[in-house]
Amino acid sequence: xxxxxxxxxxxITLATVQALAxxxxxxxxxxxxxxxxxxxxxxGSATWLLRRPTHSRWPLTAWAAGFFGWHVTGLVTLAGIVTxxxxxxxxxxxxxxxxxLYQAVLTTAAAxxxxxxxxxxxxx
Length: 124
Description:
Keywords: Membrane, Transmembrane, Transmembrane helix. The protein has 124 residues and is mainly α.
């Protein structure tokens, strides 16, 4: 499997896990709707790239970078390093440690997605 397909499937998995976490344990109302819309857009972008691999991968790379930034923010918020006031948006489990682990795993997955999706220079 090439890097672009791997990054696309990683983004689909990441957005699916995030959508499930939002539905099962996330905040209700507007934040849930916004999160699900963003997850659906990321899955749509990944699906588009899987179906047309010759198209630009930059939109999906931007989604992966955005997810990385969001989960880094969640990780440092739950770890108590930074106070953002968004604690309720990042808590997905009864224990804070499990929510922190969730954020760490999704941060790592998003970082790998960015790594796989970034274009590489042609080897000479």
